[in-house]
């Protein structure tokens, strides 16, 4: 589905492609008619020529692969150290030889970034507080007389 500000919807792309490929319009004429740039009109005409009507739909912009992703064996080692030795991200990073910023990304992805996610005892214990809990803004503002 085309976004709101898209110059061409799939139907308009199809018309553009047919004008150039089947009706013999020049790319510059069709681009001017549809108020798009020459490279855009050429792209849609080429795609229509190669794929036909099915090529006029939106494609995913998701990358096909991520060459710099953390390798699976390293992810397994990070998760293993977290589960078995209950180490923090900095300690795990020192052991596996990676940047300390890499480890939290892996732990969040695996859902074990907090110890309370792994251990019932840690999950059931109340959080340690060094100061009283903060109140929400509306109540503080009312007490200060800022809001009616």
UniProtKB/TrEMBL annotation:
SUPFAM superfamilies listed in its UniProt record: Homeodomain-like
Composition skew (Basic and acidic residues), residue ranges: 139-148
InterPro entries attached to this UniProt entry: DNA-bd_IS481-type (IPR024967), Homeodomain-like_sf (IPR009057)
Region (Disordered): 123-148
One family name in Pfam for this protein: LZ_Tnp_IS481
Domain DNA-binding: 3-70
Composition-biased stretches (Low complexity): 125-134
Protein name from the UniProt record: Helix-turn-helix domain-containing protein
Organism: Pseudonocardia xinjiangensis
């Amino acid at each position: 589905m085309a976004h709101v500000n898209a110059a061409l919807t799939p139907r308009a792309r199809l018309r553009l492609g047919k004008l150039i490929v089947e009706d013999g319009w020049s790319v510059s004429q069709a681009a001017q008619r549809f108020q798009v740039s020459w490279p855009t009109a050429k792209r849609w005409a080429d795609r229509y020529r190669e794929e036909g009507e099915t090529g006029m739909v939106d494609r995913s912009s998701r990358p096909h692969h991520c060459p710099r992703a953390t390798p699976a064996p390293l992810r397994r080692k990070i998760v293993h150290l977290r589960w078995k030795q209950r180490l923090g991200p900095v300690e795990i990073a020192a052991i596996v030889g990676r940047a300390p910023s890499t480890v939290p990304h892996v732990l969040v992805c695996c859902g074990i970034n907090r110890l309370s996610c792994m251990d019932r005892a840690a999950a059931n214990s109340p959080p340690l507080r060094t100061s009283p809990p903060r109140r929400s803004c509306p109540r503080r503002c009312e007490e200060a007389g800022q809001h009616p």
